[in-house]
Amino acid sequence: MDTICALLKHYRKKISFTQVDVAKALKVDKSHVSKMESGEDFLTKQVFLNYCKLFDFDMNRAKEFADIISKPVTITTRDKDVADAVLKVFKKLEAQHSLERKKS
Quick one: CATH architecture of 4-103? Predict the structure, then answer.
């Protein structure tokens, strides 16, 4: 998975959620979730944090990383540096989450 959209979809499926489930949890329209997963819509700092909470990531770490999103990030990566940074954040949070689950 080398795109934000692919990761969002991967995590959604990992927790056995449909796009409708995610939309309800994030309090957004289902079409917004669909468009984020297909790269047609943007990811804001708040939506990023909401996704992190939904995926049960460490929220203290997520808030630290969220500061890289100063404006909505177009998932189709118009701003490649920011998109790459967000992608790395998701991967770090997932790795940390996996380690914590193994310890418990």
Answer: Orthogonal Bundle (1.10)
Side-chain half-sphere CA neighbours of 75 within 13 A: 24
Cα separations (Å) of 60 from 50, 52, 55? 13, 10, 14
Domain boundaries, the chain: 4-103
Q: DSSP secondary structure string, the chain?
A: --SHHHHHHHHHHHTT--HHHHHHHHTS-HHHHHHHHHTSSEE-HHHHHHHHHHTT--HHHHHHHHTT-SSPEETT-SSHHHHHHHHHHHHHHHHHHHHHHHH-
Whether this prediction's pTM lies above 0.85 is answered by no
* Low pLDDT (below 50) residues in the chain: 77-78
